[in-house]
Amino acid sequence: MKHLKTLLLATALCMVTVSFTQAQSKVAHINTQELIAAMPEAKAAQTEIETLGKTYQTDIQASITEYQNTVKQYEAEAATKTDEENQKRGLELQEKQQRIQQFRQDAQQDIAKKEAELFKPIQEKAMAAINTVAKEKGYQYVLDRATLIVADGDDILADVKKNLGI
C-alpha cells in the first residue's frame, strides 16, 4: 500500500511537470536591425538615401556660399550706400538666411519621408520571414534582441536569413 501511494504520488508529480512544461510558451529572439542591415534591399535603399542627402547638401552649400558672397559684397559697399539701402540689404540677407533654413528643414523632412517609404517594404518582408520561421519552429513569441536584457532563448536570426536567401 505504501508503494502504491508513492507510485501514485510520483506519477502525479510527473504529470504535473509534463503539463507545466507543455503549458510554457516557446520564445525566441532576433536582432531585427542586424537582419534588415544584412538585406540587399536595405543596402540599396541606404545608398539611395545617401545620394539624396548629398544632393541636398550640395544645394545647401551652394546657397550658403552665395549668401556669404552677398554678405561680403554688401559689407564692402555699405559705406557708399545710404542707410535706407543698407537696411533693405539687411532685410534681404535675413530673408536669404531664412530661405536657407527652410530649405534645410524641407530637405531633412524629404529625406526622412524617402527613408520611411523605402524601408517600409523591407521591414514588412523581414517581419513576414520572421513570422514564417516562428511558425515553422513552433515559437509563440519572438522578441527583438535590442530590447532584451537577458536572452536565454533561441536566436532565430540565422534561420530567418536562410529563409530570405541571405
Give the topology:
Layout: H1 2-23, E1 27-30, H2 32-38, H3 40-77, H4 83-137, E2 141-144, E3 154-155, H5 157-164
Parallel strand pairs: 1-2, 1-3
- Provide mean pLDDT, rounded: 86
Can you count the beta strands?
Answer: 3
Percent strand: 5-15%
Q: Report the oligomer.
A: single chain
Physical arrangement of strands within the biggest beta sheet:
2-1-3
Tally of helical runs:
5
Structural class: mainly alpha
User: Helix and strand succession?
Assistant: HEHHHEEH
Task: State the distance separating the first and last CA atoms.
Answer: 63 Å
Question: Helical amount among residues, as a percent range?
Answer: over 70%
* Computed CA radius of gyration, to the nearest angstrom: 32 Å
Shape: rod-shaped
As residue ranges, the low-confidence spans are 6-10, 12-23
Largest sheet: 3 strands, parallel
Could you please describe the fold and organization of this structure?
This protein is mainly alpha-helical and 166 residues long. Helices cover 78% and strands 6% of the residues. The chain has five helices and three strands, in the order H-E-H-H-H-E-E-H. Helix 3 (40-77) packs antiparallel against helix 4 and helix 4 crosses helix 5. The longest helix is centred in the middle third of the chain and has 55 residues, at 83-137. It starts with a helix and ends with a helix. Residues 6-10 and 12-23 have low confidence and may be disordered.
Name the features.
about 170 residues; mainly alpha; three-stranded parallel sheet; 3 strands; about 5% strand; rod-shaped
